[in-house]
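Hello,

Following up on my earlier ticket. Below are the two sequence lines again, exactly as submitted.
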Amino acid sequence: MDRYGNSVYLIENLCKGCTNCINRCPTQAIRVRNNKAVITPGRCIDCGECIRICPHHAKKAKRDFIDATDKYKYTVALPAPSLCAQFNNLEDINILLSAIKSIGFDDVFEVSAAAEIVSEESRKYIAEHKDQWPLISTACPTVVRLVQVRFPNLCDKLLPLITPAELAGELARKQAVEKTGYKPEEIGIFFLSPCASKVTSVKNPIGMQKSNIDEVLAIKDIYPILLSEMPKFVEQPEDLSRSGKIGLSWGITGGEVGGLLSDSCVAADGIENVIHVLEDLEDDKFSQNLEFIELNACNGGCVGGVMNVENPFAAKAKMQHLRKYLPVAAARSDSYGEYHVEWTAQVEYQPVFELADNLKESMEKMNKIEELTKEFPGLDCGCCGAPTCKALAEDIVKGIARKQDCIHVLREYIHKLSEDIAELSESI
Amino acid sequence: MSELMELNYTVSNEDFTRAGEASSDVKKKLKQLGVSPDAIRKVAIALYEGEINMIIHAYGGKIKVTISENEITLILADKGPGIADIDKAMQAGYSTAPDKVRSLGFGAGMGLPNMKKNSDKMDIQTEIGVGTTVTMVINI
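Thanks for your patience. The regenerated structure is below:
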């Protein structure tokens, strides 16, 4: 992991140096250099858009694998709510949970159960902090990172509560220690994750010093193993599920807001829509009475995560079917003893887009960028390796690109050069 | 104070979908310049309100933003109808916006008061039938 702890990385030999990822990246974090995509660490928010768009499958997410269970004396799997929505004809969550146990875990603790407690705590926090309205959801680590790098004025609106997965890790470890008598570090907590961003948030936690999760597995990696295991439990699944509608619904957009039992909320998904909402929020365009804004970087919410298998919209339909006969909520805060759900570390603005350390120098650079931008054709073709002509101008001013990286400028340059040579040869 | 940067925008007539373009661009640039978040917030809100005002009341206009080391100056000039009673216009909730505009959720009578609230200095020059120029200064 680098300093910024990004989990999205490039498999160099698969990268063709095309322009798909540079154009898609919402923070303009990618450049093509020497025919390979390069990610600028501080700018990447692990949204997974480049993984989704890359036609050559050259972008991947770092993650852990199931053989990591060997490192621990006792293991607990934390299935994300979105995992439940990946399977056809699944009528009982206990079948899935039993199968998870059977593939190498000693126990399971549903993230959706912890989510119901986070919903309860969110309701309390929101009611007690009217001065911070509208509070912004912090369940999606990509959204938190986006706010950190692009929206300095919104950092203090972030709901300072840990994610359901983190709370599940905390509760699961506590239960396991009580049950087995092992030391906390001898217990392995495995999050079964729908996205790359959650991997990053475990290695580089948000609002806390150290994550409660030890390993993060991708849903798509364990999906085939689960698929072959599940039929064994159809007849007599173990009674393991402890969550209801509210918890499960966190896996789809509107689920977190649903758990707040309030109608003064907004829920948006898709990284471009999220940026739009944050821009407008920054300009005070939302009504004063709005209590809460749920934002999910992926289309459809966590079911749209890049490490899932099922189409997000099909997954949403399955989720709605699966939750139909569940109780509204099954997990209650008072049944888990003591826990810590509030942030213990500050989440601060990271000015990764600043041009220089001081205003004067920044302005000189910006003036140069404006001048340079006029020299380019404004096609934003990406052939230079930067997503836009403006981004190329910025790179040149930063000293990491040249004007001739623009093929249109280069063509003119060569044209002029050949004319000069012709003129020269005539004069000899 | 020597001016270090000037940005110019044209606000087009009655195109609500484009309202906020200037303030968005200015906001983005101020972040790149490393201006304090508090000043950015003030500029963004003041400018957006100003843009909306120009579209609602004045069929568009021109915006000039100058940035120096200590302050940001926003000059919004239009050739609209002018403000008949500045004192009234400065009152929160007072609006002369047409119904069409109100039905879009604008025209709550908070435009000028919000601009005043978010700037350190504000000056309005207006003449009926000629136009209005609002100058706002935000310290950085």
